[in-house]
Amino acid sequence: MSQGENFNISLVSNPSTGFGWWSQFETEYLSLVDSTYIPGNQEAGMVGVPGKEVFTFNAKKAGETYVIMLYLQPWENGTIGQRQIFPVNIS
């Protein structure tokens, strides 16, 4: 991707379980522009249906870096449900 360009990371999430996605990244190369939750399709009376969390980042500086996404319950002292690493190459 080019410097100044935005990109999205979209991950399945179910906040009714207390879990949510948290991002870790090098602020020298990236900035977090926005994060939002998009509910899943659910029929009337259904609860606990997963949706997705969408994180929008901006590529600030040319180089190679990564975004680490952690799916966790913040109050559980670092217990991580999932970890995903996304390499980012900025030209």
What does this structure look like?
This protein has 91 residues and is mainly beta. It has no helices and six strands. The protein has a three-stranded antiparallel beta sheet, with no helix packed on it. Strand 5 and strand 6 form a beta hairpin. It is globular. The N and C termini lie close together (6 Å). The mean pLDDT is 93.
Overall strand count: 6
Mean pLDDT: 93
Helix content range of the residues, please?
under 10%
Bulk shape? globular
Quickly give the CATH architecture: Sandwich
Please summarize the sheet with the most strands: 3 strands, antiparallel
Catalogue the unreliable spans.
none
Would you list the SSEs in sequence order as H and E? EEEEEE
**Structural class assignment:** mainly beta
Portion in strands: over 45%
Rounded to the nearest angstrom, the radius of gyration is 15 Å
Q: What count of domains describes the coordinates?
A: 1
Counted by DSSP, the helix tally is: 0
What top-tier CATH class fits best?
Answer: Mainly Beta
